[in-house]
């Protein structure tokens, strides 16, 4: 018995050893992104900076910035250790590291929905004011204010996050709808009816597990979940009306279906859309990358347009989602980390890299007409070359969002209760669902005071 | 590590460890001292305490201390650098719709898994133990193999089987019976079904093994005696088999209840931490969501304390009812 | 006539078990077959009963063997952690269980209740204070930090105690008369008698450790310290999008364990048969 076991263990180990041995060589090479990567490990005396993110692609920006930095400042080189964790684990780990005051990285990405968790108590993040304030004129205010508290800017934004509607030109043509004729949401619903009638394909999809179908509409309508003073206004009239609008699209006019997989980032959804499952989709611009990566069959068919307008308003878009990159107080090299972060994401090259490498619209408006951004790339190939014109057209009216320590709770309520019972099950009216969510969050807010 | 030295006296069947250890010691003083220490440690009064030391240490460090800390935290709002006491506030907030939903889910899950994972394995093990079935070892092994998978791997598989597209295995199967495809992960009943199926699939074989082991303890003569008395199959099962399986059943029930209340991963693999309409939210999931994700450690701790009380009460009742405190050989 | 119906029952029972076994193994078989298919296609449409034989390929595996060095890292971590956990937890838990079963001493009952108590305390409510403790004693992101809560496993203590209750006390006295120390009695006389329970607990503890999820999720931070379940879970999220490694990697997590189990089977069953070694 024992012999067998030993034998098996020995075999298992030898397989392991050979496997590891074989792979050590290839791990240094580029190609496929890894969950952990290091730049500048062979530079002597380089200062080590660690960077944590939840989005593998974000490492690209920092890697290329580190390479540029080491060329530009050979006297104070950086060894960048970039690591990707899964979304939840990343934020939880980071939060706990902040709470305990040790074990954290120097630089970290924080997703907007989780950002507010880091603004509670003694804030364990370094203000970036010295780098943000000089650029204030060229940065979109709503996108930097959201990561600030008491006049301190803690997070460096990643993109504009302007919400657009992606239309499938082929389906729209088949239905005989001229996309440019859709000016208001009423037009959109009317067009939707025509699409459903002519093609049998739903006009759009609504998320039930996440909030990207709702929040942009709320923001565009001039409302939000919290007002200027951080008061919870989740169930105000506008928000109820907006949610009703979504519910009606699914159940009244029947132009929308719930998103397969529950949200627009699910593998099921990609498959559904790629096969021409819906005629249009409202998502922020950073969703472009998903089209390119997961919906190759739609290349050349998708057209982006600003959001249709609400009656009596001319807000054409809503700035949604995003990632605030921060420098933590637990860093051993706070000053260097801050300087490097600004170099990576706020500088002109950094902003250009955000577009060229990730397809993100930088928040720095003065680079929008730089020639590098007009160069042909996969985004132009896929969507067409009107992107920057559209961005400039919309940017005057990017509505912001107000983040408070309780934003994450609102999102949790939306994801796990409101969207499900109102959109998927229709078991509650928008008003009931929002009221109930508001009560539960208010309970927590009162506890915090 | 405590290890008795080798013994060179072949006179005795059982090795004599004392003698061999200290007799060659050249230092008579140290010898005496060591002798006393060994005597002390070796007394039947002290030895058990040495044996249980690891447990005591681990209890103090890994249970008592965190428990106290959890209780303290449940009365606090825990923020980096500024925790402060807020009285019963956390507890007052617990009794909200989400918590009730989580508790309801957990309770249903516990009841279902306990019933299924006790009744079915008993029946299976009795049949498998009888002369009726061929290839026993093969079947036993096949039923056990699912428990070797981690919840993550098993959950990945079940997500694929119960995919919402009509091409997924589960929907193809119900399609044969003319049923519409089901969005398994989005209905309240099917969500519970998914979690229970995942759990039962993994544990069925293990519990069956427990009962099979218990069946080996039943003296064959008892069955013969029962047969002479004219008992039929079901009477034999009820009057002979079941009483003998009682201790192992208690063990299985205890473990199932506790694991049911602690359940988190079975829900995590399907919906991660927030499920639509909280259909998959469990109490521990709620702790994780509130305590870790929402950074409301005090509130999370308070839910934990409530959960602990619930489990405690249920377990005490169950143990009292079944008399597990008695020594089995008394 | 009677004989005929008996053999019919036999066939029916065997057939029923064959069906049940098939259901039990179906998900694993399905996973194995699916691991030879395109993984993103799989995530989109789910695992289907029907598929095209021609679409089967070994791309997922060639990827895992040539490029997924991380996967093998996780594998190694899981192996090391599981092995150490088995050795340490068996050693300590058997000592405690043995003492609880066979010694009369003050506080024994209290201790046993404590053991049950710990089994009942959901570890999950203690994880946060424990996590802080791990940071304070600098065990975050270490193997030992992951293993610590498993080392004196109350469930193993409980099991060893139940098992040791069935051991003959007379043997202990005999050994004492022959001059054994209390520890000698345990290590040389009683422990060997408990061996079948060791095998069973080795499997259970090994499995627990191999499949442990929530605690390593908190303790382990860096990718090269991850265990398999943590690593695989990172691939399950929409942001992980490396389904090749997820599916094929899952298969390779199961297979070695299944092989081990096939060899260990008898030990496992006999280890659970508490009364089997009496006398």
From TrEMBL, chain A:
This is Arabinosaccharide transport system substrate-binding protein. Pfam families: SBP_bac_1 (PF01547). InterPro entries: Bact_solute-bd_prot1, SBP. Transmembrane segments: none annotated. PANTHER family: ARABINOSE-BINDING PROTEIN-RELATED, POLYGALACTURONAN_RHAMNOGALACTURONAN-BINDING PROTEIN YTCQ. It comes from the Bacteria. Residues 1-19 form the signal peptide. Residues 427-449 are annotated as: Disordered.
TrEMBL record, chain B:
One of its GO terms (biological process) is transmembrane transport. The keyword Amino-acid biosynthesis does not apply. It is found in: Cell membrane. Its main location: membrane. It is a multi-pass membrane protein. Residues 1-34 are annotated as: Disordered. GO terms for cellular component: plasma membrane. Belongs to the binding-protein-dependent transport system permease family. This is Arabinosaccharide transport system permease protein. It comes from Sediminibacillus halophilus. The lineage of its organism: Bacteria, Bacillati, Bacillota, Bacilli, Bacillales.
Automatic annotation (TrEMBL), chain C:
Gene3D superfamilies: MetI-like. GO terms for biological process: transmembrane transport. Belongs to the binding-protein-dependent transport system permease family. Signal peptide: none annotated. The chain crosses the membrane at residues 12-33, 79-103, 110-131, 143-164, 185-207, 243-264. GO terms for cellular component: plasma membrane. It is a multi-pass membrane protein. Keywords: Cell membrane, Membrane, Transmembrane, Transmembrane helix, Transport. Coiled coil: none annotated. Pfam families: BPD_transp_1. PROSITE patterns: ABC_TM1 (PS50928). InterPro entries: MetI-like, MetI-like_sf. SUPFAM superfamilies: MetI-like. Residues 75-264 form the ABC transmembrane type-1 domain. It is found in: Cell membrane. This is Arabinosaccharide transport system permease protein.
């Amino acid at each position: 018995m024992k012999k067998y076991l030993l034998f098996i263990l020995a075999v298992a180990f030898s397989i392991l050893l050979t496997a590891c041995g074989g792979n050590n060589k290839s791990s240094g090479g580029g190609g496929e992104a890894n969950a952990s990567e290091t730049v500048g490990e062979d530079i002597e005396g380089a200062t080590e900076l660690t960077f944590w993110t939840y989005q593998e692609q974000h490492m690209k920006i920092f890697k290329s910035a580190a390479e540029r930095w080491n060329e530009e400042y050979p006297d104070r080189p950086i060894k960048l250790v970039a690591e990707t964790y899964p979304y939840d684990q990343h934020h939880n780990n980071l939060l706990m590291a902040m709470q305990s005051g040790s074990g954290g990285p120097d630089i970290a990405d924080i997703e907007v929905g989780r950002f507010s968790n880091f603004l509670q108590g003694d804030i364990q993040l370094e203000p970036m004011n010295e780098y943000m304030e000089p650029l204030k004129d060229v940065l979109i205010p709503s996108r930097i204010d959201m990561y600030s508290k008491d006049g301190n800017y803690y997070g460096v934004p990643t993109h504009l996050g302007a919400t657009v509607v992606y239309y499938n030109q082929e389906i729209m043509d088949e239905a005989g709808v001229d996309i440019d004729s859709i000016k208001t949401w009423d037009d959109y619903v009317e067009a939707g009816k025509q699409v459903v009638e002519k093609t049998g394909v739903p006009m759009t999809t609504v998320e039930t597990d996440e909030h990207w179908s709702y929040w942009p509409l709320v923001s565009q309508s001039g409302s939000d979940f919290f007002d200027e003073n951080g008061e919870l206004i989740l169930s105000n009239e506008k928000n109820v009306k907006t949610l009703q609008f979504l519910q009606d699209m699914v159940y009244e006019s029947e132009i929308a279906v719930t998103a397969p997989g529950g949200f627009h980032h699910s593998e099921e959804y990609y498959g559904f859309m790629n096969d021409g499952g819906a005629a249009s989709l409202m998502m922020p611009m950073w969703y472009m990358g998903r089209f390119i990566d997961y919906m190759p069959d739609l290349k050349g068919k998708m057209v982006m347009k600003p959001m249709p307008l609400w009656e009596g308003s001319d807000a054409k878009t809503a700035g949604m989602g995003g990632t605030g990159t921060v420098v933590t107080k637990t860093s051993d090299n706070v000053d260097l980390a801050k300087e490097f972060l600004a170099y990576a994401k706020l500088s002109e090259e950094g902003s250009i890299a955000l577009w060229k490498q990730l397809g993100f619209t930088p928040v720095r408006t003065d680079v929008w007409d730089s020639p590098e951004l007009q160069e042909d790339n996969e985004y132009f190939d896929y969507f067409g070359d009107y992107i920057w014109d559209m961005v400039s057209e919309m940017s005057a009216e990017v509505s912001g969002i107000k983040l408070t320590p309780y934003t994450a709770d609102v999102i949790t309520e939306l994801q796990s209760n409101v969207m499900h019972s109102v959109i998927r099950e229709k078991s509650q009216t928008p008003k009931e669902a929002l009221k109930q969510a508001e009560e539960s969050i208010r309970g927590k807010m009162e506890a915090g005071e | 590590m405590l290890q008795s030295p080798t013994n060179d006296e072949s006179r005795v069947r059982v090795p004599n460890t004392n003698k061999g250890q200290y007799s060659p010691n050249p230092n008579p003083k140290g010898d005496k001292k060591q002798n006393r220490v060994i005597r002390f440690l070796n007394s039947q009064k002290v030895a058990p305490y040495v044996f249980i030391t690891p447990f005591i240490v681990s209890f103090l460090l890994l249970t008592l201390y965190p428990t106290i800390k959890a209780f303290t935290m449940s009365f606090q709002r825990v923020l980096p650098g500024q925790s402060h006491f807020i009285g019963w506030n956390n507890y007052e907030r617990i009794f909200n719709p989400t918590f009730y939903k989580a508790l309801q889910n957990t309770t249903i899950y516990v009841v279902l898994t306990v019933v299924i994972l006790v009744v079915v394995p008993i029946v299976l093990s009795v049949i498998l133990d009888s002369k009726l079935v061929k290839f026993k070892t093969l079947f036993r092994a096949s039923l056990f193999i699912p428990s070797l998978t981690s919840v993550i791997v098993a959950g990945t598989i079940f997500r694929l089987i119960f995919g919402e597209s009509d091409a997924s295995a589960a929907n193809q199967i119900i399609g044969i019976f003319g049923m519409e495809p089901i969005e398994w992960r989005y209905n309240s009943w099917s969500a519970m079904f998914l979690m229970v199926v995942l759990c039962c699939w993994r544990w069925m074989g293990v519990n069956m093994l427990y009962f099979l082991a218990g069946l080996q303890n039943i003296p064959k003569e008892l069955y013969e005696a029962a047969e002479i008395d004219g008992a039929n199959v079901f009477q034999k099962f009820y009057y002979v088999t079941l009483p003998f399986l009682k201790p192992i059943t208690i063990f299985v029930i205890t473990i199932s209840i506790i694991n049911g209340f602690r359940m988190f991963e079975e829900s995590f693999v399907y919906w991660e931490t927030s499920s639509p309409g909280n259909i998959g939210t469990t109490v521990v999931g709620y702790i994780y969501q509130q305590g870790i994700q929402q950074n409301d450690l005090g509130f999370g701790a308070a839910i934990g304390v409530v959960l602990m009380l619930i489990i405690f009460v249920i377990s005490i009742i169950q143990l009292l009812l079944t008399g597990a405190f008695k020594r089995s050989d008394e | 006539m009677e004989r005929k119906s008996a053999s019919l029952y036999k066939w029916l029972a065997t057939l029923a078990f064959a069906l049940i076994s098939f259901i039990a193994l179906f998900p694993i078989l399905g996973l194995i077959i699916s691991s030879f298919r395109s993984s993103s296609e799989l995530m989109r449409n789910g695992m289907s009963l029907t598929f095209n034989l021609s679409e089967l390929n070994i791309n997922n595996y060639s990827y895992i063997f040539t490029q997924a060095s991380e996967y093998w890292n996780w594998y190694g971590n899981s192996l090391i952690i599981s092995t150490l956990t088995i050795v340490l937890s068996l050693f300590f838990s058997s000592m405690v269980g043995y003492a609880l079963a066979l010694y009369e001493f003050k506080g024994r009952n209290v201790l046993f209740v404590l053991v049950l108590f710990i089994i009942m305390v959901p570890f999950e409510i203690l994880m946060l204070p424990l996590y802080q403790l791990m940071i304070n004693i600098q065990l975050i992101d270490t193997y030992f930090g992951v293993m610590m809560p498993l080392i004196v496993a109350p469930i193993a203590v409980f099991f060893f105690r139940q098992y040791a209750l069935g051991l003959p006390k007379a043997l202990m006295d005999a050994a004492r008369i022959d001059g054994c120390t209390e520890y000698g009695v345990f290590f040389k006389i009683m422990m060997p008698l408990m061996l079948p329970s060791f095998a069973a607990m080795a499997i259970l503890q090994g499995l627990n450790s191999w499949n442990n999820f929530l605690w390593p999720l908190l303790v382990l931070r860096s990718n090269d310290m991850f265990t398999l379940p943590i690593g695989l879970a990172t691939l399950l999220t929409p942001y992980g999008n490396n389904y090749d490694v997820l599916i094929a990697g899952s298969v390779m997590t199961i297979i070695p364990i299944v092989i081990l189990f096939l060899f260990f089977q008898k030990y496992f069953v006999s280890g659970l048969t508490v009364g089997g070694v009496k006398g």
